[in-house]
Amino acid sequence: MKIKKSAGEMVFDSFNVVFLIFLMVLAIYPFLYVTFASFSDPASMAAHRGILLKPVGLSFASYKAVFDNPNIMQGYKNTIFYLTVGTSINIFLTSLGAYGLSRKNVLLKDYIMMGIAFTMLFNGGLIPTYLLVKDLHMIDTRWALVIPNAISAWNLIIMRTSFQAIPDSLEESARIDGANDFVILFKIILPLSTAVIAVMVLFYGVAHWNAWFNAAIYLRSRERYPLQLILREILIQNSTDSMMTGARADDRVPIGETIKYATIIVSTVPILAIYPLLQKYFMKGVMVGAIKG
After folding, report:
1. Cα–Cα distance between 22 and 275 in angstroms, integer?
2. Which of 35, 38, 57, 147 has its CB 3.0 to 4.6 Å from that of 262, i.e. a possible disulfide?
3. How far is CA 288 from CA 78, 104, 163, 214, 285, in A?
4. Cβ–Cβ contacts within 10 Å for residue 217, how many?
5. How far is CA 276 from CA 19, 185, 204, 279, 290, in A?
């Protein structure tokens, strides 16, 4: 039977709906503004003031300038390399560590976990880390953005908790059949942990896609710059001159502004498109870490 709501409950529910819609608009409007501005005519956008609810004079000049810029395309290639190679290394090493620490008969397992958790509160700092990367001869190499952050302590704990939830009987049956630890991990544990692996791919992938600070510290050659570092130069240092060579002198300032909006969209949309594909695993994978310690 359908329970009839009281007047107070209906008012409360209506207030919640209106309030949440208001919060949704506040959250999504900046993205819509940047999207509309990127498709706007540069001169019209420069003269526009106030709220933007649609493109002001539809124009693709900014996107043409972005994709004609060799730095943007090279940054895309580098970021895709850091994303694919880095995330693969992340998942592989995190899986190995989580599997070893999730087994019951591991010597000093609790002390090792205490040491890992300690790194979440304190770390060596920027200068010792830079000296370590330098001594490993990784300065100005792509590996400087992949190897130092190969394992996240928080992600390791989440994956370890997920592995602990798998029944021990599966491992015991596999060992009776002669399976070793690598067979158990890659043929039993990982196939049963699809949700948490999807979450790890999302966490590590977003971190690699958005990373720019380590690139600014360790890289010297522009041909190795990731997309986000190129974007930082365009947004903060106003380095849009090389992208406006075909524009008239009077049009350089307005098109420079819309180029910034177009660059934001170009660098944001790909990673946003990945999230819906992993959304069905997201809640299940994250909640695993909240069930058991």
Report:
1. 23
2. 38
3. 33, 19, 10, 30, 5
4. 14
5. 25, 28, 16, 5, 23
pTM for this prediction: 0.75
Chain-centroid distance, C-alpha 257: 26
pLDDT in tens, 113-170: 888 888 888 877 888 889 999 999 999 999 999 998 899 888 899 889 888 888 888 8
- The distance from CA 139 to its chain's CA centroid, rounded to whole angstroms, is 23
206, 271 in Cβ contact below 8 A? yes
8 Å CB contact between 59 and 41: yes
Burial 154-171 (b: 16+ CB within 10 A, else e): ebbbbbbbbbbeeeeeeb
- Asked if residues 31 and 44 have their Cβ atoms less than 8 Å apart, the reply is no
Q: What's the chain's average pLDDT?
A: 81
- CATH code for residues 69-239: 1.10.3720.10
DSSP character string of 115-166: HHHHTTT----HHHHHHHHHHTT-TTSGGGGTSTTS--HHHHHHHHHHHHTS
Nearest Cα to Cα of residue 192 among 288, 109, 277, 88: 288
Which residues, including other chains, have CB under 8 Å from residue 278's CB and lie 6 or more apart? 198, 199, 201, 202
Distance, CA of 76 to CA of 231 (rounded, Å): 11
Query: If we measure between CA atoms, which residue out of 200, 264, 182 comes closest to residue 228?
Result: 264
Tokens of 172: 């015991």
> Which residues, in sequence order, are CB contacts of 268 under 8 Å at separation 6+?
31
Nearest CA to 261 among 3, 112, 61? 61
